[in-house]
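#struct-help
A.M.: can someone run this one for me? Single chain, 346 residues.
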Amino acid sequence: YLLIVVVAIYCVMSVSSLYIFHNDFFDFAFALVTCGFAIQGCVKIYVLLGRVTNMRKLFYTSLDFIKVFEWNERVCQSFLKYEKFCDICRPIVFLFYSISGGLLISFTIVLSIWTRSKLLPLGIVLPFLDYDSDIGYGINFSLLSITIIYGVIGIFASDYCYLCTMALACGQVETISILCNDLTNHLEHNRDDDSDQVQKMIRNIVMSQQLNKNYMNILEDCFGIHSLAIIVSSMISIAIALFVLIHDFWINGIMVIGITFWQISAICAVGGVYMIKVQKVEMEVNETKWYLLSVKKQKMFVNIIQNMQNPVKPSALKMVLLNFETLINCLKMMYQFLMLLLNMSK
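D.P.: on it. Structure tokens below:
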């Protein structure tokens, strides 16, 4: 509840600051950039509260997948590999956001002392309060510092959660490859492809594909709007921050650019790695020696191949695919928006 209150106060400050600073180019731009985090905060709260059922369903779907194939030692090793990867990423992601938030506050304090002016870490202030007075400045600075601390926790939690869910998706796709490899090994040593064992192995492959597709659809329902909010708000924030930096040195703008660019890069990179994994597994499925099966079972395996050729791709509400190509397109759009702002300012 405290997190919701902090986000609500932050949103009120963001909207009111756009009006307060509408006559000041630099302060208005700073407030507009800061509004991007307000949008993200609202979306994260919405996902947390409005997608509770889907989040629970996502958890149980991933759990069911692991339970179904826990008998396979190679599958267990695969998921342990991704678990270790997530354990390695957790302190790295947390330290990045923590250091960024700490530097944002520290640089503001140092510059305030150096220039003997009342600077704030973010470009928003409380309405109906004189932000130039000592009391108003102290209240705004304290409130924004608290907001940054909670923001670090919230952004880390949501981003790390998405990273873990995508790591599980990679483990599921890798399971399909492992099961197909097991089928090939069995067929090479047992030509009796009409056995119940072969039927069971094919059924396991089909089941793994169905569970993975269901998991990815639920994942899209949970995080689709979250990914879209990050991409749109971050692109606008980066373009405006770069525009201000061209006209005047802005240390806090550099920090904002670093944080928002990390967010876009992270979600696009995670989606890109997943699709690379899918394409690799698709090739491995095609290399399965399914020609050793009976004609009836060969037709069944053709359906498996076709299913791998039409995976559920990670996206932002089906509007934008999350991959490396999207990251490049985002950079192009940011550049175009920046050029538009520069032309308008002439």
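A.M.: thanks! The chain has a mean pLDDT of 88.
D.P.: also worth noting: The radius of gyration is 25 Å.
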